Amino acid sequence: MSVEAPPPPLHGTPLILLTLALGLATFMQVLDTSIANVSIPAIAGDLAASPNQGTWVITSFTVSCAIGMPLTGWLSRRFGEVRLFVLSCLLFTLASWLCGLAPNLPLLIAARVMQGAVAGPLIPLSQSLLIANYPPERKTFALAVWSMTAVVAPIMGPIMGGWLTDNFSWPWIFYINLPIGVLASFVTWQILKHRETVRVSQPIDTVGLVLLIVGVGTLQIMFDKGNELDWFESSEIIALAVVSVVALTFLIAWELTEQHPVVDLHLYGGRTFFFGSVVISIGYMAYMGNIVMLPLWLQTNMGYTATWAGLVTAPIGILPLLLSTSLARHMHRFDLRLWGTVSFGVFAAISYWYSGFNTDVAVSNIVVPRVIQGIAVVTFFVPLTTLTLAGLPPHMIASASGLMSFTRYLGAGIGVSLSIALWERRTAYHHSTLVENVTPFSPVTADTLSAIHAVGIDAPIDLAVLDRLADHQAVMLATSDYFYFSAGLFVVLMLLVWFARPPKAARAATATATADAAAH
Known about the structure:
mainly alpha, Growth Hormone, Chain: A, 4 domains, globular
């Protein structure tokens, strides 16, 4: 049986246009993981929801994206990489339009679930199509261009999200995808429609897929609504927990015996892959919690506009933009676990720095640590992904990369939910503690009331102002607690990464290209 030879590489204008189209699709997908962060207060306020409920806009996207990722391999073999990429891009554009039109939070979350589900194949297929159509001697250049696109998007996301929210309205953070998605789909199809990959009909693990969706979906809903419903004091949360545990338990048993599993759990039998995946997933969970918490605190407690919150938080991407390519070339000169230790050490130091903030913190004192934190980002994704995949044979790299991306995105969704829950719980605790000390016999209370009266505010409004001041300080103390806890978690990860075995240079080299793709 003869195997059809792959089409020759592209050159000239078609190659440039294809690079731009695939880059735009990658930019659009990565952008949507960060552009909504600074718009949460506006979305929550406009749709009559709390900031806690507003974060469901982020978690619904990340979790549905995580569930869709393991299906990329089967779908691309069944329908062809070109068709799947173009269809995913068009459906992502449609879902973005529906997000902007959503009149209430449930419909917005439903549209975000659709958006995340079809986003799963975009990043792996954009890289695959790029490499397949570049000349062999320029594949490294193609990966570098692809990586730069993925690095720029997180920088632009908060800035664009803030500017669009303040100057237009929050739906425009989704409408901006419409021209990008249509253009990327059209150009890609025009260039690659006669260069489709071989289509192979393979069975799909239907039982595993249903168990995955039910188990992970109910788990995320439990984390999203847990704080609102007082966790296990609620029968709804108990029911969600039971369904999730049962579904995930059956999923593990089923996938270990299935011939074509949707999630290949046998990969966790390798020590390096197991610990590497755990470290990356927990690290990304803490990282996503941080990048959501900071702009939320700045807007709800510090009076920042969405634009300024975006500008203040965006500098975290400066150093990754400048150093990513250089690091990829030289990282194998050192033990990859050392890069992970550096990354988590910087994350821990910056989180500890944040824990010392107060309500008078200057803009410069926020921007400087954000710039430094870029060192942690650039030494986190690519080195640890390479470490995790390095010990695997080449034919297992694609499955392992998909599984690792799944757990990373799942960790992101859980991290955002738990971060907001911890923040709100600590806020309530500090508020009750502060209010307990407000008595007629307290000198601090007397001095504060005198200052309030001095500006013309008399009883009974003065007590409401005093309560607002207590709430303001409670949020600040809760934010400090959160970052202090986050610093401790990163310290634990500094130690945990050393449980992975150091890869041999030859094996590490085989994973470098895949590491670039999985890094974002």
